[in-house]
Amino acid sequence: MVTDNQKEIKNKIMKYCFSGGQDSAEEQRKYGANLDVDVAYEYLRYVMEDDEKFKQIGEDYSSGKLLTGEVKNTLVDELVKLTKAHQEARAKVTDEIVKEFMNPNRPSLAKFKSIGKDRKLSHSNQ
What we know:
EC 6.1.1.2, tryptophan--tRNA ligase, elongated, aminoacyl-trna synthetase, nucleotide-binding, ATP-binding, 126 residues
């Protein structure tokens, strides 16, 4: 999904996310959704940064104020933001950056090498 565009993300969410909503809009408005089984709502729990907005969605969805499609569209919006940020960051990674990251002798790892040596010494003294 991290390489998908907005249309692909929306198609996957609308097609594959199991809903805890009712069979019709009328029933949904009357009975609300079962949040315990709603996949889109559960995904929102992990990707939505605004806890108050997430809480409000849960209240509105379970009471029937929101329909399944609205919750799924909110999830799509959140996933598009997340994947777009990932795609932009990934596009900035060059072969040189990968090469340096994979270098076991890079300076940023020096402190970990000294920790490993200290541990070996302490274990050999026991």
